[in-house]
Specification:
Length: 587
C-alpha cells in the first residue's frame, strides 16, 4: 500500500499513529540539523521532519529531494511546536523514519503554487502541471460538485438524462459547424453539434416529457474569455409547458445551486426585464444589474443649440457616475480614449460635473448655458459630487458604446464585486434580426423559436416587430443561458422557414426529419440550456471559463499542450477523399 492516509486528513487526534504518506514535494527547508519537507497531494499538505541526529543517512536523502519529486514517507504523527494556522494539517507533522523516491522530477517550468510565476501561455502548455495548483484543483472540484447536484435536482423533478449523437447533420445557420469527414461515405461529412436542439425536440415527440443532458457542444467561432470551441451545456427540454413553467423550473435550479455552493438564499423571484428595456437602459441584452447607472436619454434637451455633434445625432445618452466629479482632466481624457478604442468605436465623449457646491462644469459649456446643463443633470438625478458622461450617435451603436463605458465605470468604482450576485430574466426578445449585407431576416435565436402568440398576426405585415417566446438568464452581466418555447405546429414552422428565406426544398433537406416527426403528434414544448462552464466560473468568481475546464484551448482555438489542431498524413487524406487547398502564401 503506497499510503495509509492522504496529505490533508491528519489531525491532533492522530498523534502517535504510524502512517505512510505519498505525494509530491512542494518545498524543502533546511534548518540546522533538521530538514522539513512539505508533501502535497490533491487533498492538502503535510509537513515531514527529517532529523540528522536521529538518522543522518535519511536526512541526507531528504536534502537531495527536488521540487515535484514523487515520494513515499513513513513516520510517526507528532504535534507541531510551531503550528501553521493557514493549513488544516498545521497542528501536526510527521517524524520520518523511512523515505522512498518513487519518481524524480525535472525542475518545473513554473512554480506549482497559487501565486505562480508562470504566464497563461506557459501554464497552458504544461496544463498537467498547472492542474496541480490548489486554485485550479478547487475549480474542478467545484465543477464536479455542481454537476452531481444538478443531476440530483433534475432527477428529483422527474427529468431523464438521455445522450444524443455527437456526429450529426450540418445545418449552417448561426455559428459555423465543425465538420468531420466520413471515410465510409466519401465526399460526405458529419457535423459536431452546436447544441442537441433538434434531438431534444424529437425526444419530446417521443414522449420523454422531461429531458436533460450535461453535454459537449461545438462552435467554430471567434473566441474570447467566455468562449471555447468546445464547451458544456446543461441542456433541458419539457413538454406541455408554457414559458412561465420553464422559468419557474429553472429559476428553482439556479437558486438551489446558489444555496448549495455559496449558501446564498434567493427568497424573492428573480426580476424580469424585456429585451427592449434592457437595450434602452443598459445597452445590452445581458445587463449587469449589480449597480445602477442606467442610461438617461437627453436628445430632446440637446438639440437646436448649434452643436452639430448633438444636433445631428440620432441618440444622445448619458450615465451618472456617483461621486466622480473629482475626476481630473487626465482621467476624463483616459475615459475618452477608452471609448475611442477600435473595439468600442465612439468618436468622443462629453461630460458634465456637478461640483460639491452645486455649480456646473462641462466640456460643452461653450454651447450650453448652466441652466441648460442643469436640466441634463436633473434628468439624470445627479447630486453634488456626481459626474455625467455622455455619448451620441446612431441609437443601437451608441447604446452599446455607453454600455462599455458603464461597465468600465462600474469596475473603476468597485461596483462589480464577483462575490455579489444579481440574477434576472431577460424576456420578449425579437424573433428576427435584419442583416443589411444579405438583405434578409435571420432568427435571433434559432428557427424553431415560437413567436409570441400576440404577435403572430404581424409575421407578414411587420416581421421585425414580432417578439419571440424566448428568455435568457443573466447573472452579473453574463448570459448564463437561455431558451424558448418551440414551434410544434408544422404549418407555423413552414411559415418561419419561408420568412428566413429557406425554400421548401432547403427546409426539407436540412430539417425534414424534424418536420416529418411533427406530423405524428408533437406536444407543445420548450426548454433552455445553461452554460455549465460559465455557471461554474461565475460561482468561482472568475472572469474566464478556461479556468474551470481541465484542458482548455487558447484564444486561437489551439491546444498548445498536445499541439492541436495539426496536419494529418497524406494517406489519411487519400482515404477520406480530401484534397487540401492551402491558403495563399502558405507552404
Amino acid at each position: 500500500m503506497y499510503r495509509t492516509n492522504t496529505c490533508g486528513e491528519l489531525r491532533l487526534s492522530d498523534v502517535g499513529n504510524q502512517v505512510t504518506l505519498a505525494g509530491w514535494v512542494q518545498r524543502t527547508r533546511k534548518m540546522g540539523g533538521m530538514t522539513f519537507v512539505d508533501l502535497r497531494d490533491r487533498y492538502g499538505i503535510t509537513q515531514i521532519v527529517f532529523d540528522n541526529d536521529t538518522d543522518a543517512t535519511l536526512c541526507d536523502a531528504a536534502n537531495h529531494l527536488g521540487r515535484e519529486f514523487v515520494i513515499q514517507v513513513t513516520g510517526r504523527v507528532a504535534e507541531r511546536t510551531a503550528k501553521n494556522a493557514n493549513i488544516p494539517t498545521g497542528d501536526i507533522e510527521i517524524i520520518a523514519d523511512s523515505l522512498k523516491v518513487l519518481n524524480k522530477s525535472d525542475v518545473p517550468p513554473f512554480t506549482i503554487e497559487d501565486n505562480t510565476d508562470g504566464g497563461d501561455d506557459l501554464r497552458m502548455r504544461y496544463r498537467y502541471l498547472d492542474l496541480r495548483r490548489n486554485c485550479v484543483r478547487r475549480n474542478l472540484e467545484l465543477r464536479h460538485r455542481m454537476a452531481f447536484e444538478i443531476r440530483r435536482y433534475l432527477d428529483s423533478k422527474g427529468f431523464l438524462e438521455v445522450e444524443t449523437p455527437v456526429l450529426i447533420k450540418s445545418t449552417p445557420e448561426g455559428a459555423r459547424d465543425f465538420v468531420v469527414p466520413s471515410r465510409m461515405n466519401p465526399g460526405e461529412f458529419y457535423a459536431l453539434p452546436q447544441s442537441p436542439q433538434t434531438f431534444k425536440q424529437l425526444l419530446m415527440v417521443s414522449g420523454f416529457d422531461r429531458y436533460f443532458q450535461i453535454v459537449k457542444c461545438f462552435r467554430d467561432e471567434d473566441l474570447r474569455a467566455d468562449r471555447q470551441p468546445e464547451f458544456t451545456q446543461i441542456d433541458c427540454e419539457m413538454s406541455f409547458v408554457t414559458q412561465e413553467d420553464v422559468l419557474q423550473m429553472f429559476e428553482g435550479l439556479v437558486k438551489h445551486i446558489f444555496k448549495y455552493v455559496k449558501d446564498i438564499d434567493f427568497t424573492e423571484p428573480f426580476p424580469r426585464m424585456t429585451w427592449a428595456d434592457a437595450m434602452r437602459l443598459y445597452g445590452s441584452d445581458k445587463p449587469d444589474t449589480r449597480f445602477g447607472m442606467q442610461f438617461v436619454e437627453l436628445k430632446d434637451l440637446t438639440t437646436g443649440k448649434g452643436f452639430a455633434v448633438l444636433d445631428d445625432a440620432e441618440y444622445v445618452g448619458a450615465i451618472c457616475a456617483p461621486g466622480c466629479a473629482h475626476y481630473t482632466r487626465k482621467q476624463l481624457d483616459q475615459l475618452t480614449d477608452f471609448v475611442r478604442r477600435p473595439q468600442i468605436g465612439a468618436k468622443g465623449m462629453m461630460w458634465v460635473k456637478v461640483e460639491e457646491d452645486g455649480s456646473i462644469k462641462s466640456s460643452v459649456s461653450k454651447f450650453y448655458t448652466e441652466d441648460e446643463l442643469r436640466r441634463w443633470t436633473d434628468r439624470a438625478g445627479a447630486k453634488p459630487g456626481d459626474l455625467l458622461l455622455i455619448l451620441a450617435g446612431p441609437t443601437m451603436r451608441t447604446r452599446k458604446q455607453l454600455c462599455e463605458l458603464r461597465l468600465e465605470m462600474g469596475s473603476q468604482l468597485g461596483l462589480r464585486d464577483p462575490q455579489k450576485f444579481s440574477c434576472l430574466w431577460v424576456i420578449d426578445f425579437p424573433l428576427f434580426e435584419w442583416d443589411d449585407e444579405t438583405q434578409r431576416y435571420y432568427a435571433m435565436h434559432h428557427p424553431f423559436t415560437a413567436p409570441n402568440p400576440d404577435d403572430i398576426h404581424l409575421l407578414d405585415s411587420d416581421t421585425g416587430a414580432v417578439r419571440a417566446t424566448a428568455y435568457d438568464m443573466v447573472v452579473n452581466g453574463n448570459e448564463l443561458g437561455g431558451g424558448s418555447i418551440r414551434i410544434h405546429d408544422s404549418q407555423l414552422q413552414d411559415k418561419m422557414f419561408h420568412l428566413l428565406g429557406l425554400s421548401e426544398a432547403d427546409a426539407q433537406y436540412k430539417f425534414g426529419f424534424l418536420m416529418n416527426a411533427f406530423k405524428y403528434g408533437a406536444p407543445p414544448h420548450g426548454g433552455l440550456a445553461f452554460g455549465f462552464d460559465r455557471f461554474v466560473s461565475i460561482l468561482a468568481g472568475l472572469d474566464s471559463i478556461r479556468d474551470v475546464i481541465a484542458f482548455p484551448k487558447n484564444n486561437s482555438g489551439r491546444d498548445t499542450m498536445i499541439d492541436a489542431p495539426s496536419v494529418i498524413d497524406d494517406s489519411q487524406l487519400q482515404e477520406l477523399c480530401i484534397n487540401i487547398n492551402k491558403p495563399e502564401g502558405k507552404e
